[in-house]
Amino acid sequence: MPRQGSIVAVLAVAGLASSFMFTLVVPIQAKLPQLLAASRDDTAWVVTATLLAAAICTPISGRLGDMYGKRRILLALVGVMVAGSVIAALSSGLIGVIVGRALQGAIVGVVPLGISILRDVLHENRVDAAIALISATLGVGGAVGLPISAVVTQYADWHLLFWLAAGLGVVVFALVLWIVPVSVLRTAGRFDFLGAIGLTIGLLGIMLAISRGNEWGWAAPATLACGLGGILVLLLWGGYELRARDPLLDLRVAARRPVLLTNLASVAMGFSLFASNVLYPQVLELPVASGSGFGLSLLAASLVVMPSGLVMMLLSPVSGRIAHRIGPRVLLLLGALALVIAYAYTLLWHSDVWQLVVANILIGVGIGFGYASMPMLIMRSVPPTETGASNGLNALFRSLGTSTAAAVVAAVLATFATGQGDAQVPTPWAFQLSFILGGIAAVVAFVVGLFIPRGHAPQEQHPSLPE
């Protein structure tokens, strides 16, 4: 079997590729209406499609991994991402790019699957540090990938972004096939196709309402139909899952107090992270004349926020040691506290660029600790045969948080805006209010974390392999 360090490294690269998909089109997002000859509302689907696909694929792929082999499903997700990248790279019209971006969203499932693989194949003493590293890639890939995307967009045709993603996917596929061992721990039973369909329809409704409500109008019939319809479908789906012989997700396991509270904290943590991803670049890039910005280029702004991702990577081994000694619950609390401090610091000191660099370093500490702790808490509370599905569900809750943050922050910035020439520019109060909301989300994550039980479930044990 390959050395365990090689397995961790390959899964970390897969995680970086996954998070890179979310910042891939950021440099061209404002130009998409001109590039694709479509309205701004239509081109918004280039981003929305990825979010929807990620939310749907993550819990379903986790269950498939538990049943049919985690490496096999991980390879399938990477293959779908490569196919989507090629489709988008060959497309010059809106439909092709949206289809490609939706297929790219499938790769988000590799992170919870990779974390589950670590539990199966690593020595018990190395699991926490490895999970911290893989979790850190959720922020590192975006923070480091943004400058790369900015450089490519500035000096080359925008299609090259998708060819770059395809090439990265091919490398990840080859490395996983070569290094990562075949999964031997499987869950018996049949795949719950009806449950997968119900979950997909319900999530689609809710995610559409959250992600498109600002454009459609929060009280518009389409928004209400999607949101309320999605909730109703999920309620019916939950009743079916509780009676199913081989459910897609074991809701009794998901309802355990440590799992439920960790997932709720994940929503708040995801909101706090994505709020920072939206706010800091805009503040840095807006013209100085607007009274809200610093007038930096996209590349310069991405270099300012990049330290947050680097801090996450540097803290990953520290996170593992802290969790191993005093438990992941304390790690979650430290992460939430760092986010509270980051947002409070930003509200008090935001007149110079270097102050925003400091704030992003604090954001990196918060997300690095918080995201590392959540899969550890989940795996201490579920049986080994449920790790893929349970980590997938946790990733889904994080996605709900990020999607909610995107919608709420966009609504705040649009509501409190003033005219500058032909454009509407957010006022300083719009950013202050958004930072307050990010801080409140961090406080919620901290409070919820206080109620997570300290003890470990008896199912925490997993096969320990020799080093």
**Structural class given helices, strands, pairing?**
mainly alpha
Low-pLDDT residue spans: 457-467
Q: CA-to-CA gap between the ends?
A: 11 Å
Q: How much helicity do the residues have? A: over 70%
CATH architecture of the largest domain: Up-down Bundle
Count of helices?
18
In CATH, what is the homologous superfamily of the largest domain?
A: MFS general substrate transporter like domains
What is the H/E order?
Answer: HHHHHHHHHHHHHHHHHEEH
CATH class of the largest domain: Mainly Alpha
What Rg do the Cα atoms give?
A: 21 Å
Beta-sheet strand percentage?
under 5%
CATH topology grouping of the largest domain: Growth Hormone, Chain: A
How many domains, in number, for the residues? 2
Which word captures the global form? globular
Number of strands: 2
- Read across the widest sheet, the strand sequence of neighbours is 1-2
Largest β-sheet summary: 2 strands, antiparallel
Mean pLDDT value: 87
Main location: membrane
Keywords: Membrane, Transmembrane, Transmembrane helix, Transport
Subcellular location: Cell membrane
Domain Major facilitator superfamily (MFS) profile: 7-456
Q: Would you kindly provide a written description of the structure presented here, covering whatever features stand out?
A:
- The protein folds into two domains: 4-191 and 248-460, Growth Hormone, Chain: A (Up-down Bundle), CATH 1.20.1250.20; 192-247.
- Helix content is 76%, strand content 2%.
- The protein contains 18 helices and two strands.
- Strands 1-2 form a two-stranded antiparallel sheet.
- The longest helix has 29 residues, at 127-155.
- It is globular and about 65 Å long.
- It starts with a helix and ends in a 17-residue tail after the last helix.
